[in-house]
Amino acid sequence: MTPQSSALALSIAELGVLNRRFETEPAGAIVRWALEAFGTDRVCLTFSAQDTVLVDIAVRVEPGIEVVFIDTGYHFPETLETVEAARRRYGLNLRIMRVPQADPPLWQEDPLNCCSAAKLSQLDAALEDKLAWLSGLRRVEAPTRSEAPIVGLDHRGLVKVNPLATWSDVDVKGYVADHDLVINPLIERGYHSIGCAPCTHPVGPDDSPRAGRWAGTDKTECGLHTELPGPNGSARPR
Prior knowledge:
Rossmann fold; globular
């Protein structure tokens, strides 16, 4: 496949082959494949600023990779500080997508659809000229993510690559320690999955990492990780 190839040229069978291959490949090799397959300027990395594991891995492969952060206007100060710390450390090619602010805030008026109206619209804009994007999604984070592929197609038909899909929490902590990485300080205060401040709460040691997101509702995903059915036909995170 050349960088000019359409993402849709990847068939379900080809995705299956790639996923089987990447189950045992290091994350850096998966990032390198994406950049070589689609071209550095047609791939970006989405950054949640929970930790900098995927950023660290990606910039070791390609220092100039575009890193996208969606600023909803409702982030914790610690999250914004983590973004700035990462920018300084790596000299990131950072693209900040800022969500226009509503009055009253959308999270108050329509909390269940706030993510769709805010985060998703900005991600769509960031991906307009891309063929593929990298995400830090991991299978152990939630039951909704337990079957997430390493390489799949999102609802736009773009290739979505999750280089850390197979990583455990121990893997992440070990990599952070080994490389002295920047992490969001909220993690040490019990925030094991960090989103916007109004919708994120700390959790107990025995709770699911994402139990503190949208507490009191049936919502479990913001919608950024909506994917088409994978090789086995199963639904993916929505």
